[in-house]
Amino acid sequence: MNRSTLTVPPAGTPQPEPHPEASVGVPLGPHYARCFGCGPDHPTGLHLEAVSHDGLSVHAEFTVGDLHQGAPGLAHGGVLATAIDEALGMVVWLLRKPYVTGRLETDYLRPVPVGTTLLITTRCTGVVGRKAYLEAEARLDAPDGPVAVRGAAVFVEVPAAHFERHGGGAGGMVPGREVNP
Ligand SMILES: CCCCCCCC/C=C\CCCCCCCC(=O)SCCNC(=O)CCNC(=O)[C@H](O)C(C)(C)COP(=O)(O)OP(=O)(O)OC[C@H]1O[C@@H](n2cnc3c(N)ncnc32)[C@H](O)[C@@H]1OP(=O)(O)O
Asked: C or N terminus of the chain, fewer CB within 10 Å?
């Protein structure tokens, strides 16, 4: 992957530690029922489902459908970036602090046909101050299938008030916007 230095933890960054209350071995569920990436109530969303086995990485699945096309029969690159972004967001969700994507890098290695199930693995490679460094790869149809997309990101920790200030409400304060109800 063509990595910028911005998404690589500085030399000497210690291995991150999982949060003691991270959800492990069970479906992570959506962080918000109407989220475009993971929300079951979103009519055209990606409906990503995921599990973590160690509290620092996530295995997510996303099946590419008709609504996700760019070129005929092929997934749109922006949709694939969204799926990666969401699966990265699930990793920082395990850290049990609010984060947002600051920077997201994607390399597209293979076309992804409609009907493909992408197996997306994301992991946290380090936490420095408010920044969490993350990596992703998406494979075609099987855990050992060919890699179609790689990603890397910096997520930035924000106060919970970020979502209320900029989104108009969270945590059930605005009807239809409950977070983890
Ligand atoms: C009542 C309960 C409420 C709970 C609510 C929880 C609900 C939500 C739950 C879970 C959400 C998960 C959702 C998953 C969905 C997938 C994730 C998304 O798509 S998120 C949407 C897209 N992203 C944005 O909308 C960010 C927009 N940008 C911003 O808001 C700001 O720019 C922000 C917060 C990223 C940074 O702004 P600053 O002013 O707070 O902080 P500064 O000082 O600029 O940066 C802090 C550090 O981060 C680095 N940084 C910032 N941006 C960077 C970048 N683009 N690349 C690399 N580093 C960056 C800076 O260099 C700085 O580093 P140094 O501490 O100095 O070492």
From this structure: C
